[in-house]
From TrEMBL:
Amino-acid positions noted as binding Na(+) in the UniProt annotation, renumbered to this chain: 220
UniProt xrefs under PANTHER family: EXTRACYTOPLASMIC SOLUTE RECEPTOR PROTEIN, PTHR33376
Annotated signal peptide: 1-32
Name of the molecule in the record: ABC transporter substrate-binding protein
Entries under Gene3D superfamilies matching the protein: Bacterial extracellular solute-binding protein, family 7, Periplasmic binding protein-like II
Record: residues binding substrate: 161, 182, 219, 244
Metal-binding in keyword set: yes
Database matches in InterPro entries: DctP_fam, SBP_TakP-like, TRAP_DctP_sf
Organism lineage string: Bacteria, Pseudomonadati, Campylobacterota, Epsilonproteobacteria, Campylobacterales
Molecular function in Gene Ontology: metal ion binding
Superkingdom to which the source organism belongs: Bacteria
Length: 364
């Protein structure tokens, strides 16, 4: 074989080798793109806890559709895993890759998680979303949850929650002394300082407890979820909210599970969570509108009330004392609360101009 033929043969072999390498690389790339990643998610909610459970399923559907089937998430409701208030522990341990719950449920384990759901007299839902995504709130949430080796993202807001159903009207602080009420969390501690006998009762027992006068009042959510419970049929006084002005749910993700996902699937997952969270907020708003009309149809004698100023002033005072007490024990909690306070102060001027004054001038 002469020199020219040898050179041509060498070129041909090189081309074949390059082509084979390219084909192999393309094959590996296509296989990587087509790999299906399967995650397991546990919720605090049962199948009928609408719209909270809907948010979970919508997120799962969005993630699978946007990933063209490469990201599949199995949802286990509370009736299956039997630990509705164990979501953080299960995600932290890797038993589940993800969870959908509410951050203030973990205050007994980590007091720093409390403010990411809602705080009495705190941010409204639009203000809180702005704080999360543009005011440093999301970064603070990751800072709090980093020691648990999980990530946390906003998971849907109920907006302002109502102050509760009362059998009797509240006209003074004396009317709260000895009153038996179901109201959990930080708000329960505030009410306890005002003399309320605070109790926590399972959801399935709330109606019978109120009907049998085992309790005198209870707080649940708002018309969208209260209507199914039937409270409006036995307690005529419906008080406006103060304790949870922007109750935000949360998506939890095990950090190792998240890091194993390709970058594009990480982005798809975050977009799916953010979209479904906002959709829950507007869906619940619509449900409140419809449910409130139906409540009034069932019981036209419902009286919407606001707590008297003397009661509200004492609530605010007790709330500040409790906040100062718990934040003095945790610099990280103080950092989160200070951040929320600063953002609220900055945002409230615009909230007043845009929403409050508009409504004030047009609700005559």
């Amino acid at each position: 074989m002469n020199l020219k033929k040898r050179k041509n043969m060498k070129k041909m072999i090189t081309k074949v080798a390059i082509t084979s390498a390219l084909l192999m690389a393309m094959s590996v790339s296509m296989q990587a793109k087509e790999k299906v990643y399967k995650l397991k998610l546990a919720t605090t909610w049962g199948k009928t806890t609408v719209p909270l459970i809907d948010t979970t399923y919508e997120m799962v559907k969005l993630a699978e559709e946007m990933s063209n089937g490469r990201l599949k998430i199995r949802v286990d409701t509370a009736s299956k895993h039997k630990a509705p208030l164990g979501i953080l522990d299960m995600v932290k341990a890797g038993q589940y890759d993800m969870g959908h719950s509410a951050s203030y449920y973990w205050k007994g384990k980590d007091i720093n998680t409390l403010p990411f759901t809602s705080m009495p007299f705190g941010l409204t839902a639009p203000e809180q979303y702005a704080w999360f995504y543009h005011g440093g709130g999301l970064e603070l949430m990751q800072k709090v949850y980093s020691k648990h080796k999980v990530l946390s993202f906003p998971g849907g807001s109920t907006g302002v929650q109502m102050g509760g159903w009362f059998r009797n009207e509240i006209n003074s602080l004396d009317d709260l002394k000895g009153l038996k009420m179901r109201i959990p969390g930080f708000a329960g501690e505030v009410m306890a300082k005002l003399g309320v006998v605070v109790t926590n009762i399972a959801p399935g027992e709330l109606y019978t407890s109120l009907d049998s006068k085992t309790i005198d009042a209870l707080e649940w959510v708002g018309p969208s979820m209260d209507i199914k419970m039937g409270f409006h049929k036995i307690a005529p006084f419906y008080y406006t909210g103060w304790h949870e002005p922007a109750s935000e749910m949360q998506f939890l993700i095990n950090k190792r599970s998240f890091d194993k996902l390709p970058k594009d699937l990480q982005t798809i997952l975050k977009v799916s969570m953010r979209t479904s969270a906002y959709n829950m907020y507007i869906k619940n708003y619509d449900m409140n509108i419809t449910a409130w009309k139906n409540m009034l149809k069932d019981n036209p004698d419902i009286k919407v009330k606001t707590f008297p100023k003397v009661v509200m002033d004492e609530m605010k005072k007790s709330n500040k004392e409790l906040r100062d007490e718990v934040s003095s024990k945790s610099p990280l909690l103080k950092e989160v609360l200070d951040s929320q306070d600063a953002y609220q102060k900055k945002a409230r001027e615009w909230t007043k101009m845009s929403d409050y004054l508009y409504l004030k001038d047009n609700l005559k």
